[in-house]
Amino acid sequence: xxxxxxxxxxxxxxxxFLALEQRDRLxxxxxxxxxLPPLPERYADHPDLxxxxxxxxxxxxxxxxxxxxxxxxxxxTAPKEAPTTRGFASxxxxxxxxxxxxxxxxxxxxxxxEIGLTEAVSPLRIRGMMALLGRIQRQxxxxxxxx
Amino acid sequence: xxxxxxxxxxxxxFAHPERLVSTEWLADHxxxxxxxxxxxxEDVLLYETGHIEGAVKIDWHTDLNDPVTRDYLDGAxxxxxxxxxxxxxxxxxxIYGDKNNWWAAYALWVFTLFGHEDVRLLDGGRxxxxxxxxPYTTDVPTPTAVDYPVVERDDTTYRAFxxxxxxxxxxxxxxxxxxxEYSGERTxxxxxxxxxxxxxxxxxxxxxxxxxxAVAENGSFKSRPELEAIYLxxxxxxxxxxxxxxxxxxxxxxxxWFVLTxxxxxxGVRNYDGSWTEWGSAVRVxxxxxxxxxxx
Lengths: 147, 296
Fold this sequence. Notes:
Helices cover 51% and strands 10% of the residues of chain A. Chain A has helices at 8-18, 22-34, 41-44, 83-96, 101-105, 118-121, 123-146, and strands spanning 51-52, 61-66, 72-77. In chain B, the strands form two sheets. In chain B, strands 1-5-4-2-3 form a five-stranded parallel sheet. A five-stranded parallel sheet of chain B has the order 6-10-9-7-8.
């Protein structure tokens, strides 16, 4: 993974995690989980528009918008009983905010493995975050092709 | 046992009522010397969002599994782990968690492999505790470490490996996964192949009883007659049977292991923790697809 390919916000999040001891990394992930914004009303009323992330054991749904300026907007919802998944989603929502289609598609797929959480959270759980990123990128590719 | 058992009438019909405590019993006994409450969840952060006062956390991935070999921690590792949580060999351990005690049952089964005598489940787990409006705290206890003896794990009585499942064929097997996993259907999303196993289906003759069928609406276990209707009636088990239960990695089947062993009194139940991630990728083991158990 080359740092030049990583958008600033994602790089900062990675540095934040890596600077901490294992135990504190969980606490930071918990803080991220509390920052996941609620779905905008247009999706809250239309669960049919959302894609289920079946790799996550909790009911996690996401939706991606690509606007006229080819800027990506990511929306994810996960129940409060799934704080780890909410934390993963929040990292991606914050880290991808304001990026263009090309920038989102260039994010390395193994980013979730690089933020120092595999030991604190376990590799199996990190897979859920990789699936989330993969699905976001697939929706971005599909929707930017339509536009 | 170190602490008196829960005399609740709803447990008396079970084969081993001493393996369950009610939320009320736990609330009344919190802080009692000789009792350690353990939370074990699917979600590694759920404990941090709030837990029962004084409860310690044991995580199935990061605490109970060996980080390198696909196995559980060894006797020295278990002694170090539980000793650091303030658990001695004669401590009464009550485990609870999310998802109908799915992971709590898994932790209980691992405690059993090490022969920890007095280990119980909180009936209903987090869901029932919350539904009753009982409190949580985010204060993390700092237990004083105690000595726990190094006990060799018993991998023969309650645990089965693939070779033993092959020898067992012809005797009762319970597949506790979802009907879709049992039949071998797959939901192939574009660019997202099914992870975990190379083949879909189930072990020949295994009966399908999804694990959560043992759980009532409020998250507690169903009554003994209801459980017997499912496991003896529908699945055709007979008291005295040697049974092997399996799922994908052995966690959901720990829950069924608990039901068969402690609630219905089967003595020869083993959990095949290699489960489908091993069987579904192993070379030349028999597999049946579809909704019928199939034949050997």
